[in-house]
């Protein structure tokens, strides 16, 4: 099993905290956000973790090394200083991720979710399985709807949910692109197209989850982890 942690974002809304520290290395109770993910992945017998980086990426490499202290092998996918869009970062890293479905975890989330509950296989005809949560105050409109285990377009639906930044992805979801042609490729249009074809499954998590997108949310985690 392989996994990718998305860690290339600049973290503009987290400034000044991210002026000298990449967002995934910001600590919660003395431990960097990304280290919580690595420890959980190691518990799930993940063999290889790919981490993309851009802004202050050398700090991430210096802090985590080759992954051996976590019982993992870490490969790095370097991007330009501005970073790629989410899908572009995944596409660039595809040669490091192999031909089987892989987990994708946002490096700037904090959650009690047990990674043992992440799906390891995709149902026939599915190209991804995303983990969703109830809408937090900062995203009350939500991202997607659910329809009998499938992800659905919101389309004015009364009940919507927020994507947690955790999921299982098939490399085939990105088959229309090849590494080297990934600049400016965004994830949402790819998901929307696959949703229209009934190719994205989804599940709800029922544990605490935070998108650490502002200094205020980080402070709240420090006070109430």
Which tags fit this structure?
single chain; 225 residues; alpha/beta; seven-stranded mixed β-sheet; 5 helices; 25% strand
Describe what this molecule looks like in 3D.
The chain is an alpha/beta fold. It has one domain (2-223): Spore Coat Polysaccharide Biosynthesis Protein SpsA, Chain A, CATH 3.90.550.10. It has helices at residues 33-43, 57-64, 86-97, 187-196, 215-223, and strands spanning 2-6, 27-28, 31-32, 48-53, 73-78, 102-106, 109-111, 128-133, 145-147, 150-152, 162-169, 200-204, 209-211. The strands form four sheets. It has a seven-stranded mixed β-sheet.
Short description:
The protein is built from five helices and 13 strands. The chain is α/β, with parallel strands linked by helices and 225 residues long. It has one domain (2-223): Spore Coat Polysaccharide Biosynthesis Protein SpsA, Chain A.
Question: Secondary structure elements and their pairing?
Answer:
Elements: E1 2-6, E2 27-28, E3 31-32, H1 33-43, E4 48-53, H2 57-64, E5 73-78, H3 86-97, E6 102-106, E7 109-111, E8 128-133, E9 145-147, E10 150-152, E11 162-169, H4 187-196, E12 200-204, E13 209-211, H5 215-223
Parallel strand pairs: 1-4, 1-6, 4-5, 8-12
Antiparallel strand pairs: 2-3, 6-11, 7-13, 8-11, 9-10
């Amino acid at each position: 099993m392989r996994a990718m942690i998305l860690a290339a974002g600049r973290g503009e809304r987290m400034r000044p905290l991210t002026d000298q520290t990449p967002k995934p290395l910001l600590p919660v109770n003395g431990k960097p956000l990304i280290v919580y993910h690595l420890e959980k992945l190691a518990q799930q017998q993940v063999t290889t973790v790919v981490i993309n980086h851009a802004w202050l990426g050398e700090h991430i490499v210096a802090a985590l090394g080759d992954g051996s202290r976590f019982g993992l092998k870490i490969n790095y996918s370097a991007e330009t200083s501005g970073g790629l869009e989410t899908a572009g970062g995944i596409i660039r890293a595809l040669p490091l991720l192999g031909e089987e479905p892989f987990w994708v975890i946002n490096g700037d989330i904090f959650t009690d979710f047990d990674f043992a509950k992440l799906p390891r296989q995709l149902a026939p005809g599915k190209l991804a399985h995303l983990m969703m949560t109830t809408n937090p105050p900062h995203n009350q409109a939500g991202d997607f709807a659910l329809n009998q285990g499938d992800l659905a377009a919101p389309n004015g639906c009364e009940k919507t949910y927020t994507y947690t930044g955790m999921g299982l992805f098939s490399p085939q979801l990105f088959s229309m692109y090849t590494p080297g042609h990934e600049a400016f490729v965004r994830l949402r249009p790819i998901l929307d197209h696959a949703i229209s074809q009934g190719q994205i499954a989804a599940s709800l998590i029922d544990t605490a989850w935070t998108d650490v997108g502002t200094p205020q949310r980080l402070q709240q985690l420090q006070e109430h982890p």
